Amino acid sequence: MAIITGKKTIFFVTSPRSPFKMKDEIRFLIENFSGKKWTAETQREYYEALVHQPFFEGSQSSDPAFSARDRITRGPKSLGFVDLKPVIALTPAGHSFIYGNRPEETLLRQMLKFQLPSPYHIDENRKFAVKPYLELMRLVRDLEGLSKTEIALFVIKLTNYKNYKTIQRKIENFRKAARKNRERRQVNYREFIAQYFEQELTSLFAEEIRSGEISTRESDDSSLKSFIRIKQRNHTDYADASIRYLRATGLFTFNAKSLRVFVMPERAKDVDYILETVSRKSQDFDSKEEYVNYLFPATTPILLTDNMDGLIQNIALQSSEYPIETLHTKTIEELKDIFSALLSKNLERILGQERSKLRTYEEYSDIQDTFDRIRNSDIADPALFLEWNTWRAMEMLDDGTIEGNFRVDNHGAPLYAAPGNTPDIVCKYADFEAIVEVTLSSGQRQYEMEGEPVSRHYGNHRKNTTKPVFAIFIAPQINPATLAHYFVLSRTDVQYYGGRSTIIPLALDDFRRLLENAKNAQNKPNSQDIKVLLSEMASLALKASNEAEWYQGISSKITSAFSMTPA
User: Fold this and answer.
1) What is the pLDDT at residue 258?
2) Which Pfam families does UniProt cross-reference here (predicted)?
3) For residue 220, what pLDDT is reported?
4) pTM
5) 468: helix, coil or strand?
6) What's the confidence (pLDDT) of residue 567?
7) Which residue ranges form the domains of the chain, and what is each CATH number?
8) What percent of the chain has pLDDT over 70?
9) Which residues contact 305 (CB under 8 A, 6 or more apart)?
10) Are 473 and 507 in contact, with CB atoms under 8 Å apart?
């Protein structure tokens, strides 16, 4: 039970950051701890066992019990997938989410039921009266999209649905101010955003600032500047997570150019149905039992996809190949299958068009611009978009079959990252193959998260092909420990990895320079050019006296790459 009395803002589920990561972790909890009490000891045992599972993403914790609570109570419990009292149990909604055919529908229903306050989130002052995800959906629909910044600045303050119009006007005024600033070139956009955050947060927390109560547990620095910076980061984290959860429902997508989440046109009727039929009022509950009877069912609230006529309408908008009279003979589940198949067919068409544009370097400028947006964290889920944008870059760069292991939504935008036990990208060519791993992590964390896993992915892929295999590791900066690890493996015959490993570490700026060289080459490089370049960079490790010399050699090779491509 969380106490939200005195809080100034709403919140969205932030753990786990991506909702479908809950599935494996809930399944593991239920299959190994169902029927046990959710005690500190159980929490510790759960987390210590979880870190050894192949799907786990994260690191060892100095407080396993706290880490377990963070993973289970924020997402799975708050959304009604698990019940933790009196003992650990899977709810009907949880069963549908974990084992059902349409987890995105179940997730959507639970997000629509999530409300503040509730018996899980106690507000003694009754300041809160809102269903956060419902009102967020309404704003996205009414304003034709929302950016992460707009959610962090304004939506986060919608503690009562009756204040909806006030928040809507604030966002509209913000957009006008942003346009005016851009037209008059008053300050750069990042400075404009920083000023707006300072203005909004100073107003929101005026009482705390006046009384000097501005210290936070995230920092020992009790200055106003630190307080504003930490609040801005927290609000942005909520905004980022809210967009991920919206997109996981299958009704929303994200545009990397406009930096806004918006309703998929083909699902607009679904969103309109929700906004018309789901009550905006947060319900009062006399007991926890009454609340869980509301939260745990898997089939409420009713969605447009539960309605035969609504489903048939959606199918007819997508395709004319199914006669209406035939559709009326189908069951609801059969109609859902038909609609899903049509969306998948449309996605194949979208991806085919995207590949065609990439191979002509038509998307070069957008790829480079997207790398800038990722580096500035302007995009929701920048790590995921780094995988997707690198896939686009590899598609553009050469003539192989480039497969991203991330999942995309029905508009081709990345939805969630590659599973932890697979490479991010696999590139298949006539006489060699390459895996590509990308990360935004840095420092020691980069080595812990990417050192052994990348080596293992490389070794596993090597076992499944007779062709030579390269691995390309891309990060904003290459940590010295990571570099040293790959250098040692490149010079050492390790049977577990299939011999000497050819893992090429590239700083993101070097990779972007490689793309620039390819675009400017008189003849665009092909797979053989890529193979020669990778082979030369790998051989440098055998000649270099240390890892720093090897890395400097790699950077030099990038600088001159493709410059000698004959006309």
Assistant:
1) 87
2) RE_AlwI
3) 62
4) 0.87
5) coil
6) 40
7) 129-281 (no CATH), 307-347 (no CATH), 363-560 (3.40.91.50)
8) 98
9) 105, 270, 311, 314, 332, 336, 339
10) no
